Here is the input.
Amino acid sequence: MSEVSKRAESIRPFIVMDVVARAKELESAGRDIVHLEIGDPDFPTPEVVVKAAEEAMDAGDTGYTQSLGLPDLREAVSMRMHDDYGVTVAADRVVVTQGTSPAMLLLFGSLLDPGDEVLMADPCYPAYPNYVDFLGGVSAHVRVHAEDGFRFRIEDVARAITPRTKAIMINSPSNPTGGVLGCEDLESLAELAERHGIWLASDEIYHGLQFEGRPHTVLEFTDRAFVLNGFSKAYAMTGWRLGYLVAPEQFVRPAEKIQQNFFLCASNFVQVAGTAALLRAQGDVARMRSVYDERRRFLVPALREIGLSVATEPLGAFYVFADATAWGPDSVTLAGRLLEEAGVAVAPGADFGAGGEGFLRFSYATSLERLNEGVSRLGKWARERG
Ligand SMILES: Cc1ncc(COP(=O)(O)O)c(C=O)c1O
Here is the structure.
């Protein structure tokens, strides 16, 4: 019998990390690998942010901060919510965390009792079901479809609600699909949440990387909502580890207690840098967004050209989720073959849920030149295999 806890055993591995490990092995053996598998921006963090961190370190901002986060940063989040979306969110409702990932623990930890269900898209970002299940909740999946741009069909969400449903998880723009929920989608979800007395949990980490129209926070539509966000993607700050939770008032103290005990606080000078990002790096975000958009415009038709199906244009984040069943039904086997035989690393769709099987996720957080090289290798691979 295993000595390892059932809780740890039940966490599903992230297979793309195996792809990364194998790619690194091949590289150390001298192979050139095109990396289209990871969602890590290839841009350096904006200079204004780096400078702010350096100055904060020089000034000695190296001790603990309040568990809820530095007041200036919480104010800056409140200001951005106002300027970007026109919503009023008191800085008191912002809990600063060491990335969006720990904010998920605060959210689900303060919301879920054992057996409580959270509805989420299938496919979705794999941490969601893992967090929910780890905390004793139940993740329940609602299939989303390529032909709908991977947006929820509201009738499917409504049908999946049970007396145990506590929340609906949403993520727009989405990892892995690049899908974006429109105002009508958010309005309908808000209406469902209010009617059933459940909560919306909205991961808005890819806001800032939406290519058509402006992103909408769920808080424009309802107060029965939590917002998760962070600096990793739009500000190219994955390694800095900074994010935040915007919680309804009664959940702030519970989230604070989790933060106090499990993490104490986010890094002090990183919070100063995050404040600078929110106040002074909007131009940098716009610049990176337009480069991502240029890559997206290249990659989508290029993938179609070599035989993959992209039913609807991805509208945000930096991913294309392409149907690769023409090349093989099993995405894990296929991703393995593409790595070994074509030297191109991609994420298998099955990593993101049963609904992702048959798909591959291509990240365009890499240069146009490397994207071009990746696509030509894949095209050659597809032609040679007939
Ligand atoms: C949808 C989504 N949420 C959260 C995260 C994790 O973000 P962070 O680096 O802020 O922990 C990622 C990272 O890939 C993501 O794609």
